[in-house]
Amino acid sequence: MFKLNFLSKSILLSSLCYSQISFAEDQSTDTTITDNTPIEVISVIGRAQQFYLAKETKVGSKVNLSLLELPQSAQVLTEQLIIDQAARDITDLYRSIAGVSEYSYSGVTFRGFRDDANVFYDGVRGDPYSGFGVPQLFNVERVEVLKGPASALYGGGEPGGMINYVTKKPSFNEEKQLKLTLGNFATQGASLDMTGALTEDLAYRLGGFYEQQNSFRNNADAENIELATGLLFNISEDTSLTTTLDYIKQDLGGNRLRGVPVDDNGNFLVDPSYNANEKVDYQNMEALVIQAELSHYFADNFKVNTTLRYLDNERDQAYHESRDWVDANGDGVADINDQIIKREYRKQYRANEEISVTSDFVYEFETSNFEHQFLFGADYHTVDTEYDYFRARYEADGVANLNIFDLNYGITDPSTYALTDQNRDGVNSDRYGIYLQDVVKINDKWTVIAGLRYDNFEEYNQETDYSFQDSGVTPRLAATYLANSDTSLYVNYSESFNPASSSDQETVAQEGSLTPETGKQVEIGLKKEWFDGKILSTFAIYRINKENVVMSNPDYTGDSGVVELLNIGEVESNGFETTLVGDLADNWTVTANYAYNDTEVIKGVSGDTISNSFGDGSRFVNAPRHQAGLWTRYDITDIASSIAFGLNYVSEQISLGDQKVKPFTVFDMSWTSRIDDVLFSVNVNNLFDKEYAVSGFSERNGHFPGSPRTIIAQMTYDF
């Protein structure tokens, strides 16, 4: 691991930034990329157009394509939508993403498949919140979601989709904003964000965020701190360099959070405030992210964009984990009727040092009257992980049992526990990929995309001194037919690639024999703009087959009862999604979506939890068949105010314990009013204080309860 501490790294970057400023002052100002004269910001009181509708994104192609032309389902959640929903972390936005739902407080499901790792920032791997943290949105300009396999451009991952966070960058347009936040559950916070020009060639950004909040769960609370800074330097009219530094600190008390026990019908057996953790439990995370993005034009039709990202992430946690029921009544059966549950205490330390680099070359040219956008790219991602794990089990090690109906917190003291070192070490992994793509505009009607990627993956387990290497090739082929200027039809075939972990490779009879899990998707869709482009509607129907799923061998348990793993699983996901985003009128905007998904195990082993399944024909865990989301805003221009209304519907799910997760509908609303440069807003989430579970977990841990009614008041001052 890189041993420089956060302060040292900050000093180094500050020195770099100062050098850049000094260098900029010595440069000629004759040539710049754009006219960088600071632009006066004029506040307009009234309805702005296209609050929620973004028409372009590079997330699905890495080249300039409109959403109408992109032959794949993608959504862009704009900064205005984030503001209007008072969204502070990504879970606040799931209602606005078709086919996406919560798997747990830190997990997510895309089109039926859980995928917590396929997370990108500015198109580059490296998630500072990896490992049970929830991404905060202070430093996020917009959220881009690509549905279906993304391996042809972004490398290994699950076939359901990916999330890309586009972070805020320095700008030559001067903006200064102060925001204060108050709410129930002792919520209070503040943020400051400033950007503008330092010289004709140099722009800056400086921001800070702080928020603390108690939880509705017992013994739980949260404190989030984020500091962000950056420089944009126009080296010449053809070259620009953007550097950013992001420091994140997240302290969560009474974590890591698990669920609340339920019966088989999904009814909470105790109050949703239940928490198996003690007040002394915690999960603390500290991360430093340094990023540099270089953009250069070799010619008007030939450019390169290279992004280097360094990430240092440290997570320290100690928590009480529910294990087995105690046969307290002596009837010979240990179950919830006994009311007493055993707990173990886990004290863990994880640290990731990650380096990512992505370089994309785009060359535009014509051949035989065909217009080409040819992409050649490569990326590299390395992770060096440290892992320490200590455990105390049950009363024998000093960990008191917990009565879930008569909570006996505070009678146990972690300082007296007999901790056992589990002798865990980290994992080192390296992956690199090379990819090609050609976007060919055949005529005014037809556009074809063909792409191919090669991935190599290497992993070394420091604990066992075991290493393995794997590789894969993932193609993509798609076509778009532009029926007219506002209507497109498309078809898409894409594949995914996800190698097995080193720990799984070691458990098989022939080490390293597990092949990568692969996914194949066929998707057809229709996109249409309405009312002169003010509204965009989409419809997509898809089938995803995930093959070579790692599962236990039903015919062989191996030595000492250790199961043998095989690539014998197959899962099929079928569904369709529809979205509508845009302006219904000059003062009325909306984003709405509906998704149907049916994810079933085609080949599997009954009771095998590795694949989150329960045998052939069973449904995947936490994969709802129906989802619907709505957020609509109406501006009352006469009083410089707006009112907004939202809902989130998720149908029945199945938990890891094969228990029902009941469907739910949650309603939200907000009110905003502007007085000169000050915006006042009040958001009420879960308006009717609905008691519900967002997803399910194991039988002993129950379901993850959703938040009760939450009120957030904010004052935003633009100066």
Quick description:
Helix content is 5%, strand content 53%. It contains four helices and 36 strands.
Explain what the structure shows.
By secondary structure, the protein is mainly beta. It has a single domain, classed as Maltoporin, Chain A (Beta Barrel), CATH 2.40.170. The protein has 4 helices and 36 strands. The protein has a 22-stranded antiparallel β-barrel. The protein has a 5-stranded mixed sheet with strand order 1-7-8-5-6. Strands 2-3-4 form a 3-stranded antiparallel sheet, with no helix packed on it. Strand 10 and strand 11 form a beta hairpin. The radius of gyration is 26 Å and the shape is globular.
Helix-residue proportion: under 10%
- The level 1 CATH classification is Mainly Beta
Give the C-alpha Rg: 26 Å
Task: Compute the number of helices.
Answer: 4
Query: What would you say the CATH architecture is?
Result: Beta Barrel
Strand content: over 45%
Q: What is the number of strand segments?
A: 36
Query: What best-fitting shape do the alpha-carbon axes yield?
Result: globular
Structural class: mainly beta
Largest sheet: 22 strands, antiparallel, barrel
Mean pLDDT: 89
CATH topology: Maltoporin, Chain A
Separation, N- and C-terminal Cα atoms: 43 Å
Counted up, domains total 1
CATH-wise, what's the superfamily?
Answer: TonB-dependent receptor, beta-barrel domain
The stretches of 5 or more residues where confidence is low (pLDDT under 50) are 1-35, 41-48
